[in-house]
Amino acid sequence: MSGSRPRPGLSRRGLLVAGGAVAGVAVAGALGVEEEVLPGRGWLHRTLGLDGPDGTVPDVPPGPLTSGSFVSPARLGQRVGWSIALPPDAPDHLPVAVVLHGRGGDHTSAFAPDYLALGSFLAAAVAAGSSPYALASVDGGEAYWHPRANGDDPQKMVLQEFLPLLTRHGLDTRRLGFLGWSMGGFGSLHLAGTLGARRVAGVAVMSPALWHDYADTAPGAYDDARDFAAVEVMTRRSDLDGIALRVDCGEEDPFYASTRDYVAGFAERPAGGFEPGDHDIGYWRRRAPREVAFLGRALAG
């Protein structure tokens, strides 16, 4: 076929050399991606099946789940949903870990069977010997769990409205845990640091949404550079002094590099670590057993 003929002036040897050069570029590109010189490491690992197995929900029935809503003055009068998950046969006055969802989620994300199903992970942890405690989630919208210029203040909602609600439901809120992923991972670090060790026993985060600079942030995550500077956690590690800390992030996650830098900045390395995994439910389910057990130990202490 005419389409298979080499162009005039291009010899067979030239074709071989050109082909070798293309292959060399492809290999160099792959190595560059692997070393994070070029973008696309997560895509490459997903394509090659190198981002690790998806976690599975334990075959353990969850305990009672109570849900409701309230009108939140702190969130501009919005109706805010919430859920409280208890382990099976739970005693009264349990300590509680507040669960902060990622961007695009809501209070149901933590416990929905087709999402994180944390009620089952909690039940499995307690059955395996963890001290019992409650998990409680609440709607935070997409304001990144801090006060915004438009008046929406999910931080105030959690601290001044949701925690008293948990107390009224018989939970012990004198010392708390925080658990979050993505946007909620940032929020957990931020709120735990805001309250400090006198109020927070432990915080466990997966794939926290962390950036070094405002210019790198996702659209809408912060109002402006001043807003970012007021609440960023990368330079405020000392706010977590005395709080048990666990940080997990997948190596294919877009926040891997910044989370790695965040962890490296602690004098004493936090629990958790890095392994193959992406910014997705499969990875978060894989880490959930350790996150839930970690908070059980922290709250028991």
Automatic annotation (TrEMBL):
Listed under catalytic activity are: an acyl-CoA + a 1,2-diacyl-sn-glycerol = a triacyl-sn-glycerol + CoA; 2 alpha,alpha'-trehalose 6-mycolate = alpha,alpha'-trehalose 6,6'-bismycolate + alpha,alpha-trehalose
Q: Which GO MF terms are attached to this record?
A: diacylglycerol O-acyltransferase activity; hydrolase activity; trehalose O-mycolyltransferase activity
Task: Supply the alphabetized keyword list.
Answer: Acyltransferase, Hydrolase, Transferase
**Superkingdom of this protein's organism:** Bacteria
What is this enzyme's EC? 2.3.1.122, 2.3.1.20
SUPFAM superfamilies, alphabetically? Answer: alpha/beta-Hydrolases
Kindly give the Pfam families that the UniProt entry links to this protein.
Esterase (PF00756)
Extract the InterPro entries matched here: AB_hydrolase_fold, Esterase-like, Mycobacterial_A85_antigen, TAT_signal
Query: What family classification does the UniProt entry report for this protein?
Result: Belongs to the mycobacterial A85 antigen family.
Q: What is this protein called?
A: Acyl-CoA:diacylglycerol acyltransferase
Organism lineage string: Bacteria, Bacillati, Actinomycetota, Actinomycetes, Propionibacteriales
